[in-house]
UniProtKB/TrEMBL annotation, chain A:
Claim: Transmembrane is one of the keywords in the record: yes
A cellular component annotation (GO) from this entry: plasma membrane
Function per UniProt: Part of the binding-protein-dependent transport system for D-xylose. Probably responsible for the translocation of the substrate across the membrane.
Localization terms from the record: Cell membrane
Identification of the protein by name: Xylose transport system permease protein XylH
Organism: Marivivens niveibacter
Automatic annotation (TrEMBL), chain B:
Start and end residues of each ABC transporter domain: 6-246
TM stretches of this protein: none
Annotated keywords: ATP-binding, Nucleotide-binding
GO molecular function terms listed in the Swiss-Prot or TrEMBL record: ATP binding; ATP hydrolysis activity
Short name of any one Pfam family annotated for the protein: ABC_tran
Cited InterPro entries: AAA+_ATPase (IPR003593), ABC_carbohydrate_import_ATPase (IPR050107), ABC_transporter-like_ATP-bd (IPR003439), P-loop_NTPase (IPR027417)
Organism of origin: Marivivens niveibacter
Keyword tRNA processing attached: no
Domain of life: Bacteria
Protein known as: ABC transporter ATP-binding protein
UniProt xrefs under PANTHER family: CARBOHYDRATE TRANSPORT ATP-BINDING PROTEIN MG119-RELATED (PTHR43790), SUGAR ABC TRANSPORTER ATP-BINDING PROTEIN (PTHR43790:SF8)
Length: 368, 259
């Protein structure tokens, strides 16, 4: 008979090297991807891409997508998809536009109301998925069309026939909450850095980059919060458990339904945040806002290491996934390549990520 | 005799037109091991799932510590002090042993917005509880998917023992285990029972049941065929009851008593 190892050290266990441990982290692929893409553009792109203003240039779209991507990643870890988030950006944009322009509400009311409307719709999505037991893929595909259509119809009603609602900039002008959702943050710091010669300046001494666009700060903050919640709180454990096997999770006392509905609500609220930031930035809202963003957000999450089957992934991975996205979209304009290579690049990244994630999953579970 | 912790009276459970349970009465008292025996498909798992809040019974009543009670979810049952090792173990292969161990009942530190999962404490408890069960984990962050079937079973049992304050339900915990681990599980049942916990032990292995059981209830096709007390029933009699009194006795004779 085989002898069992005595208490203490088990001779049948090889010490795990740091590298092997690292290999098991879900965000590994995305970090590798960022390095790869950076190297690629350092070689091929104009050096302006990696100046401070160049970095802000690609980080801004990365941030707008990343806010969606991080939420999509959490939802995907919880075992569900939301294909309606792109349309939700348009719908929340419309609600926000109507609240500030047509109803003249200040941001302190308009923003919570927009968030609440988005959360309610997310909650409805989640409840339908749970009640019917249908795949969220199909339920939210319906949402994709319904919300896009409602945005079109709604905008025509509220703008008197056009699919664009203007006048947001004037309506929010001078609002005390504006600095949280638009423009550049830390401008004092950048002016100071310019004065001591730490950053590039224009001839008149003003810094070339006036500050960090607020969406980048939102993006970083949300990535940190999501990572903390996922890895360091009971709720995070519930999310992984729910996505890993909702039946086992439920039998172990995890409130699976609450977890899923909350994740749908968070995802919809992330879409509303992107809507608010981009609508204020553009000064108007239109029905095409957020077009195709649902796919880009899901790709971001997958590049970030999320498994399509749920139960595995990382918010930091999605953070880097979004940066890859931003770098590739904007980076190509700094090169001599035709910009339409973008889609090819994207598809290639996605395929690579899915294959890579599959290998990682097998390593983690020790599947043979 | 002491009062039962949980008393299940006339439990029926229908799944559509399938009658899985047709009036089962069962109870557990503190410090006893009550074995639930029956062949595959008899309804044992379905029955303990009504006990642990997974299924709502179609009919029948549950009395917990003398008060009528309805479990709305597995969480309710756990909070009442019932812990279960399900036949399918309810473990998530992609998650670490510790995260599985504390799934749904994570220890926390800090308060208010700083309230967080106390991973260090969780790892420590998990390693310690596994050691008590005779298993040395490589690392607490090892994914459950990398464990062998027996090790997985042991994690599930260790988890239930740790959380099973009043009632511990084990659904066929020994069927996937080797000799050494089986005796480990049986001695764990003995240890837990000595602490005053009521144990419900499901098995279709009569020898395992007789080794630790105080009472034996046989389930056949969704109905109880009666309850016997230790010492009043022999292995062949139990075996016969489980098979519904069929020709098993003859069969066993021709196999030389090996079943
Ligand atoms: N969710 C369900 N839906 C329909 N039938 C079920 C369900 N769960 C169990 N059953 C049926 O109930 C009967 C008893 O099953 P089970 O309790 O698992 O038996 P045992 O654990 O004693 O082997 C079986 O015939 C099984 O097919
Ligand atoms: Mg069973």
């Amino acid at each position: 008979m085989a002898t069992d190892a005595p208490a203490g050290n088990d001779e049948r266990i090889k010490a795990e090297s740091f590298a092997t441990k690292l290999m098991k982290r879900p965000e590994l692929g995305a970090i590798g991807g960022v390095i790869l893409v950076t190297v690629f553009f350092v070689i091929t792109a104009d050096s302006a891409m990696f100046t401070l203003s160049g970095i802000m240039n690609f980080m801004t779209p990365a941030a707008q997508l990343g806010i969606l991507g991080i939420a999509a990643a959490m939802l995907m870890i919880g075992g569900e998809f939301d294909l309606s988030i792109g349309s939700m950006v348009a719908f929340a944009g419309m609600i926000f536009g109507v609240l500030v322009v047509n109803m003249g509400l200040p941001l302190v009311f308009a923003i919570p109301l927009t968030m609440a409307a988005a959360a309610a719709i997310g909650g409805v999505n989640g409840s339908i998925v749970i009640r019917t037991g249908l795949p969220s893929f199909i339920v939210t595909l319906a949402g994709l069309f319904i919300l896009r259509g409602m945005s079109l119809v709604g905008l025509k009603i509220f703008s008197g026939g056009s699919t664009q609602l203007r006048g947001v900039r004037d309506a929010v002008e001078g609002d005390p909450l504006l600095t949280l959702f638009s423009g550049d943050a830390l401008s004092g710091l950048f002016t100071w850095m310019a004065s001591v010669g730490l950053v590039e300046t224009f001839r008149n001494g003003a810094p070339k980059v006036p500050g960090i666009p607020v969406e980048i700060l939102w993006f970083i903050a949300l990535a940190l919060i999501a990572t903390y919640v996922l890895l360091r709180t009971p709720v995070g454990n519930w999310v992984f458990a729910t996505g890993g096997d909702s039946n086992a999770a439920s039998n172990s006392g995890v409130p699976v339904k609450k977890v899923k509905i909350s994740l749908f609500m968070v995802t919809a609220m992330a879409a509303a945040l992107v809507a608010i930031i981009t609508v204020i930035d553009a000064g108007s809202t239109d029905a095409r806002r957020g077009f195709m963003k649902e796919f880009e957000a899901i790709i971001t999450a997958v590049i970030g290491g999320c498994l399509l089957t749920g139960g595995y992934g990382s918010a930091i991975g999605a953070f880097f996934g979004a940066i890859i996205f931003g770098m590739v979209t904007i980076g190509l304009t700094y090169t001599n390549f035709d910009q339409d290579w973008f889609q090819v690049f994207l598809g290639g990244m996605l395929l690579l990520a899915v294959v890579f994630n599959n290998v990682i999953r097998k390593r983690v579970t020790g599947e043979r | 005799m002491t009062k039962p912790i949980i008393h299940m009276e006339g439990i029926k459970k229908h799944f559509g037109n399938v009658i899985a349970l047709n009036g089962v009465t069962f109870d557990v008292t503190p410090g006893e091991c009550h074995c639930l025996l029956g062949d595959n498909g008899a309804g044992k798992s379905t029955f303990i799932k009504t006990m642990s809040g997974v299924h709502k019974p179609t009919a029948g009543s549950i009395t917990f510590e003398g008060k009528p009670l309805e479990f709305g979810s597995p969480r309710d049952a756990m909070e009442a002090g019932i812990a279960t090792v399900f036949q399918d173990l309810a473990m998530i292969p992609l998650m670490s042993v510790t995260r599985n161990f504390f799934m749904g009942r994570e220890p926390t530190k800090g308060r208010g917005i700083m309230k967080r999962f106390d991973i260090d404490a969780a790892n420590e408890i998990c390693m310690e509880e596994m050691r008590k069960m005779g298993i040395n984990l490589r690392a607490p962050d090892q994914a459950v998917g990398t464990l062998s079937g027996g090790e997985r079973q042991t994690v599930a049992i260790a988890r239930a023992v740790y959380f099973g304050a009043k009632v511990l339900i084990l659904d066929e915990p020994t069927s996937a285990l080797g000799v050494r681990q089986t005796s480990n599980v049986l001695s764990t049942i003995d240890r837990v029972r000595a602490q005053g916990v009521g144990v419900v032990f499901i098995s279709h292995n009569v020898r395992h049941a007789l080794a630790v059981g105080d009472r034996f209830t046989v389930l056949n096709r969704g109905q109880t065929l009666g309850t016997a007390v230790k010492g009043e029933i022999t292995a062949p009699e139990l075996q016969d009851l489980m098979a519904g009194g069929q020709e098993l006795a003859q069969l066993e004779g021709s196999l030389g008593g090996t079943i």
